[in-house]
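Researcher: Please translate sequence to structure tokens.
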Amino acid sequence: MIWVTDKTGRFPQRPHYKPEELDYECQEIVSRFLKHKFGTVKLPISTDDLTVLIEQDTSGLDLYADLSEDGEDIEGATDFFKNKEPVVLIKKELSGQPWREHRLRTTLSHEYGHVKLHAFLWKTYRPKLIPSPGWEKGPRCKRSTILASPQKDWLEWQASYASGALLIPITYLRQIAGDFLKEQGYYRSVMTGSSEADILIQRIADSFDVSRDAAKVRLSQQGYLSQEHPTIPLF
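Model: Translation complete:
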């Protein structure tokens, strides 16, 4: 991680992470938690365990929050404080409707990304920049940016990337995707939209209990899905 100027104006400076730094940091967080609880890394991490993980690093997790005042498209939020840990808020419809389980999981991991990557920024900078009684409204996260966000919005991009890295840890992703590519006879990737891509996306979705959209984003980030027909090795 290096410090760079925050062009969004939120902070004087902000952290810049390489994707591989986020990959291994998030994998370490999940692995450490699961090994402590089960003695081994047992994936996929369950939704209940994901909430316990979040509760360990926050002062509150509200799974049934009313976020309607922030906009109908807001599904998660994190509030920050001077003298205590953040509070994570999840739109009540996600927790109250079982068919939205995958959306709940990605939203939980996205907000946890804000907690782990950004809480120290509010403690360090925001009390000095904006006088307050000790609390400040933090990121309000839209459904459209939970899974993937433009890099120009670094705050949301980092949390979105962390969401995928927490739910689909890099080493295990590489193992499953690598085995699949060997089965298919490809070196590094399969073509987006192909039958092979469809199978790989579903395999990742099933392995980590995430939506196909989340699996596709993660595979694309890691270069396993190509816009061009990949080279087939000659045997």
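Researcher: Any highlights?
Model: DSSP finds ten helices and nine strands in the chain.
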